[in-house]
Structure formats: C-alpha cells, structure tokens
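The protein record filed here.
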Amino acid sequence: MRETPVCTAADAIYKLAAGNLKYLNAENGSGDISRRIRMSTWTKGQSPYAIIVTCSDSRVIPENIFSAGIGELFVIRLAGNIIDDNQLGSIEYAAGHLGCRLVVVLGHTHCGAVDAAINSEPSGYIRYITDEIKKAIGDETDPYKASCLNVRHSVQEIEKSLCIHDIKTETGLRVVGAMYHIEDGSVEFL
C-alpha cells in the first residue's frame, strides 16, 4: 500500500473540475504530453491523482475532458462504464499501489450502450453489457435518467467490493459519479 497519497479526494475533484473548465474553452488539448513528462513517468513511474472509470465511446476522452496530461489519470474504459472483477482489480491496483484517493465513474449523454439496453435485445457479447445496464436502470426509458442510474449503480458496485471497502477505510478513498455532456463538454458531478 502506498503510504503517501498523490492528493486528497477533495483536491482531486477540484483539479478535475478546474480541468474541465479549462477544456470548455480550449481549442486544443492542454495536458502535459511533453518529452520531459514521458521521461519522468518512465523513470519515476506514474502518480495519477484520480481513477476514471468510463465508457469506451470515442467521444469521451477523460484526459482531454479534464485537461490532464500523461500520468495524471488512471483510466479504465468499458462500454457502458459497467463494473466487473476486472475493473475492480484495476481500481484496487490504482488505489492501493499508486495512491489514488478518488474514483470517478464517468457516464455520458447519448450513450449507445444505455440506448441498446433501453431499446433493443442485443445478442452475442454485447448482451453481457446491456444485461448489466438493465439491472441498473430497471424500467427507466429516459436516456439521461437511465445513464445517471447506470453511473450510480457502478458507484455502488465499487463501494460494496470488500477490497475497495478496506482501502476506503484505510486511506479515505472516495467514489463519486459524474456525467459528461457530449453536447457541450461539461461534467456534472452527481
């Protein structure tokens, strides 16, 4: 377990919100991707200040949305931002070994996985994703409300994990939900 956190959960939320404000007015990416930071993270390792669990949607790019550079965010992506043992293991690693004190489950508007769960009966491997989302949203048919329910469900799945619970107790790890609005670029913490 890393003894010294990168920053507190409250500080991490502040950095994310400030980065999103910067992003809203940016024309280009503003995170540090310099040779210096690449060399630093290679020699000293990574020190992300937040764990972002988000959707695989190509329009949702956490490093850009939060104006973050290399080594600042530990990003876990899966369609529909659903949680299973693989995501929990990644969260456990980032919180326990890298010192992250904040997990953000970042859903988004106009999510194709949520839409599929509401409006169709997919087959194949997609069904694993939509079945999990259906558990989260129940009978909700409003896409935005369903996306928020899906985020809250993922937050609950993380919080009820025994390993994550132990890390929360020992370190003050915080798990929050948020929605990225594709239409205007803003992030709403739930």
In short: The longest strand covers residues 102-108. The radius of gyration is 16 Å.
